[in-house]
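cron nightly-structures :: item 1 of 1
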Amino acid sequence: MDVNILKGKWKQMRGEAQRQWGKLTGDDLDVIEGDREKLIGKIQERYGKQKDEAEIEVNKWLSSTH
């Protein structure tokens, strides 16, 4: 998914992200603002994952949401 599309659809996708990664708070989702790199960073922080693991999860999630 294109980065600009993610930012544009973020308000719609927030709920899906919250369901996918339940440890992300509303504040986390506000900070992420549809930024893929911020999403990866927050997943690393909340779940203790390596960057490549978080990146794979985000890529799979993004490919399944459009």
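cron nightly-structures :: done
The helical segments are 3-20, 26-32, 36-47, 51-65.
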